[in-house]
Amino acid sequence: MAIVVEDGTGLPNANSYGSVAGFRTYATSTGFPQDQYPIDSVIEVALVKATQYMEAGWGPYFLGCPQVEDQALSWPRFPVWDPRGRRYYDADEIPTRLQQACFEYAQVFLTSGTLTLTPSIDTTGQVVTKITEKVGPIEESRSFLPGSAQPYPSYPYPDSLMSEFVEPTGDGSVYR
């Protein structure tokens, strides 16, 4: 898999917000045992999957507008204000916390083997976590994700990093 890291210019073929070198540096600084993933191509897949997850779950709700009409990813964007009120992000900037969220989601992918991008949703709108079927004499059961109005699983730390880039709802939560 060829990884193309968004560099802030709005690349039309970018598929990741983070690089392997950036991931390794971040993993070392946060104590993630990335030595168990010595092959760069494994990390590349995790970074691409993490970026896909970010785009699917958060992309539609990002503040601002894409910098370039035909850019592949949602960032770079403008005008987006630093939530601490210090400055606008530059129009060609990929915020550090966005990259850190990518690294965190990649760690989830590396340790669990998945990031749920397309959950199974039944006709009631609930996320199905388990389906049991038996053919004779017919039996069917379904288990659902509690409070599954949100079809994406929660990953508290990377989700908190992402929350500053989306519009707050007014009730303390964020759109997602």
3D architecture notes:
The protein has 176 residues and is α+β, with helices and mostly antiparallel strands. The chain has two domains: 141 residues, no CATH class; 33 residues, no CATH class. It contains four helices and four strands. A two-stranded antiparallel ribbon has the order 1-2. Strands 3-4 form a two-stranded antiparallel sheet. Helix 1 packs across helix 3 and helix 3 packs antiparallel against helix 4. The longest helix is centred in the N-terminal third of the chain and has 18 residues. It is globular, with a radius of gyration of 18 Å. 30% of the residues are buried.
What is this structure's SSE topology?
Layout: H1 20-30, H2 40-57, E1 65-66, E2 77-78, H3 96-112, E3 128-134, E4 139-144, H4 156-162
Antiparallel strand pairs: 1-2, 3-4
Helix pairs in contact: 1-3, 2-3, 3-4
Radius of gyration: 18 Å
Number of strands: 4
Termini separation: 28 Å
User: What is the ordering of alpha helices and beta strands?
Assistant: HHEEHEEH
Q: What's this entry about, in short?
A:
The chain has four helices and four strands; from the N terminus they run ααββαββα. It has 176 residues and is of the alpha+beta class.
Quick tags:
two-stranded antiparallel sheet; disordered C terminus; alpha+beta; two-stranded antiparallel ribbon; 176 residues; single chain
